[in-house]
Amino acid sequence: AQKVTQAQTEISVVEKEDVTLDCVYETRDTTYYLFWYKQPPSGELVFLIRRNSFDEQNEISGRYSWNFQKSTSSFNFTITASQVVDSAVYFCALRGGSARQLTFGSGTQLTVLP
Amino acid sequence: DGGITQSPKYLFRKEGQNVTLSCEQNLNHDAMYWYRQDPGQGLRLIYYSQIVNDFQKGDIAEGYSVSREKKESFPLTVTSAQKNPTAFYLCASSIGAGATYQQFFGPGTRLTVL
Questions:
Q1: How far apart are CA A48 and CA B61, in angstroms?
Q2: Which of A2, A42, A52, B42 is spaced 20 to 30 A from A102 at the CA atom?
Q3: How many whole angstroms separate alpha carbon A103 and alpha carbon A94?
Q4: Which range among A20-24, B50-54, B96-100 shows the weakest confidence by mean pLDDT?
Q5: Which candidate in B105, B109, B110 is best for mutational testing of the A interface (most A CBs within 10 A)?
Q6: pLDDT at residue B2 tops 80
Q7: Predicted local distance difference test score (pLDDT) of residue A50
Q8: What pLDDT does residue B1 have?
Q9: Are the C-beta atoms of residues B109 and B6 closer than 8 Å to each other?
Q10: pLDDT digit string (tens) for A51-108?
Q11: Nearest CA to CA, how far is A39 from chain B (Å)?
Q12: CB–CB of A47 and B103 under 8 A?
């Protein structure tokens, strides 16, 4: 069985603050893939990143960075110098190598205040 | 422009009526998916199709039906057997059905049953 936990239901920050969204996962597969998606108010999910279980290097893309730690089964997402346009629901998702489907966390609603 | 289209964006139906949600993609993807999203929850898989004329049940298939007669199209019918059909429905596609493939999402259809 697969499970993704996003314990933070809602987070509010003031513009230019850094914010970290937590994601903890469970899987029995040794090969698996982790994803982050952004869902703005329009509703469409926007792909942000994919990481496989064999690559524990942290990744940075502009103001976004991801910290993957297999030892704690976590794949956290940090936004540096947040902006109002970052306001959205962010989903962490997992797909094990043997699984037929993507398992989503319940999402974190991020609100960035001006 | 390549992408996934879902129509309509908002749909209202009376209780007891069947309703079909459209999903079309021009990405030449083999795999397609239907998800349901309820407020404050993550996405849950309803059905998926790895290839034309094939589809499999996801976690919450009861009360739903699909067809995959063409590669580009994967319509979802919400039947009167679905006890609580009001939700946001998202269609997705990927190049293949394997775990490594990123899923691309459509803009969604918000169904309200009165």
A1: 28
A2: A42
A3: 5
A4: B96-100
A5: B105
A6: no
A7: 92
A8: 62
A9: yes
A10: 999 988 888 889 999 999 999 999 999 999 999 999 999 999 999 877 778 899 999 9
A11: 10
A12: yes
Round the CA-based radius of gyration of chain B to a whole number and report it.
13
CB contact under 8 A, A101 and B58: yes
pLDDT digits (tens, 9 = 90+) for B31-45: 999 999 998 888 999
Q: Write the residue in B88, B92, B99 that is nearest to A95 by C-beta.
A: B99
Instruction: Find chain A residues with C-beta within 8 A of B109's C-beta.
Output: none
DSSP for chain A, written as a single string: --EEE---SEEEEETT--EEE--EEE-S-SSEEEEEEEE-TT---EEEEEEETT----EEETTEEEEEEGGGTEEEEEESS--GGG-EEEEEEEEETT-SS-EE---EEEEEE-
Among A2-11, A75-84, B52-61, B94-103, name the one with the lowest average pLDDT: B94-103
Q: How far is B78 from chain A (nearest CA, A)?
A: 20
For the cut 70, the answer to whether the pLDDT of residue B99 exceeds it is: yes
Over range B85-98, report the average pLDDT.
Answer: 92
How many Cβ atoms are within 10 Å of A43's Cβ, its own excluded? 18
Residue B101 pLDDT more than 90? no
